[in-house]
Amino acid sequence: MFFYVLKRLVIGSLTLVVASVIVFASVTSANGDPRDRLATCIDCDQSAYDDDVETFRLDEPFVVQYLDWVKRIGTGNLEPASSQGDQPVIEVTFARLVNTLWLVAPAWVMATLLTMYLSLTSVSNPTKVRSALSRLLGIWGLAVPAFLTGLMLQTAVVLVADRWGFKPFRSQGLKAESPVAFISSAVLPVTILVLMLVSRRYAVIRTAVEAAFKEPHIEAAIARGVPRRQIITRHIPRLVSGPFLAGTLSEISLLLGGAVVVEIVFAWPGVGQLLLSSLRSSDIELSLFLAIVPVVVVLLSGILIDVAQAIIDPRIREWRK
Amino acid sequence: MIERTGSLKLVAGLALLSLLALVFVFGPILSGLDPTDQDLTRIEAPPSYQSWFGTDELGRDLFVRLAYGGRQSLVTALAAGLTTLVVGAGIGALAGLFRKLDGVLVQVVDLIVSISNWSFVLVVAPWFLGIPGGVGILFGIVSADRIARIVRSHIQAMLANDVILAAVVSGSTKRSLFRRHFWPRLSGVVAAELVFVMALSSAFEATLGFLQFGDKLSLGLALHDAKGSVTDETSRMIIPALLLMMILLSFYLISRGVAQLRPDTLGQDHGASTHA
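^ inputs. structure came back:
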């Protein structure tokens, strides 16, 4: 197990190097130049221009610029975020990340419970309504992109609100003055995220639950007269955890992108919105940081998930020995 | 029974898609207007004989703009399908056929997984926007891991098959193995998955457009503009939304139809069952 983790870490860091070169090259060459902001800066002069050349080593070759950035990240000495009033990059990101997590964490928990409930009930007790629901979820998840679902829901609520005279939208994130105001502004974005996650997962988890019921030891347990409740709450979740954890990996990257779309539709001040605004104002330092962090997190969580799978599922542990 | 619903879905999907393609290709030609020509004397005009869906806040023809957005959507899907076929199925087939390459190629797939997230894609997007169908190429690359995994696992499972072993023993080359044994059994799964990726790429293109990070003429951008327009935003949102949903629905139907007509040799129902 130890050597397995070590090997994964080595390969992971090689992957990180390749990914970081791609990220650095694309941010610096395709998303503008840090000096672009000087075009709209009124009290900047030649010294500001020279400063930018100095800090980002713009007169040096690509390799030097890249290594300089790696050093800045490694030592934690990042340049301030120019598009955010020169606040420190890490602080800005962290503040926005908290906002995003307030959307994403409840959505994730709700989506997990809902998926498990839907797939367990639809497999152990299939009815017409349930199978129609599963088909609808499958089509909806694919044929309607999240931003469109968001727009539709928003428009519908606005139409109703116009008629009844109440205003559900006050997107202040954590700055909302009361818990009620916070919840009322979070309801719609969380709903979209839950719908998105459930429709992504449902088909996979349902198939896994179906397969789990056919496992010999489950059939043996049923034959032995183990109560159904116990099978559903104890044995099945263990078997389903594999595909579930594997799916979680791709969800982490989806959710870390800050559920960009949902944040834009509902004007939620999260990481996704921060990334878009930093790219638009060619704030190189912030864009680089926001683009590389998800890569690191996904690589690390990939290793963690593999280890977790080995701990939960004895078969995988045997296989890796 | 399965055969019938399968072909029904396939035919319905293909019919809807060709109808849309016809409208997108010939609509602007019949209308004779340009999507970027501004006519400031006719701002936000209601539908008329000349401009079928009316005009926007700069006097540009809404129908022609939407048709160009639809073209963009289909071109993106085509580019994404081709890219993911070449990159994904290529990696999968090489990794499955050649043991020595397997280790390296699995790492390449892991690299793709680790970078396929919104932040990365948004950062890289400008590189691809200049090329026709560029968004599709980008999406085809970042979602190539799906098809690669499927092809690789199928080939590895088939390699243990007695028929294949007999062919190997009697001296078949890897190339003829692939052409005569693997490809006929893989083609259904690969086709279903391919169409599925095409649908996702159209959705992705619209989303990029909506975030104003995509092409200049996109159904997503049309939705964004409609949201920002002062007058009557709901009615301006309905048509692009419907068009987008119809494009995606037709891809979904085709993918499901293919998956049902050519079921997976491993007995799993891939295409459209796992989501990106």
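Chain A touches chain B through 56 residues (CB under 8 Å). The two ends of chain A are 7 Å apart (CA to CA).
thumbs up if we can close this ticket
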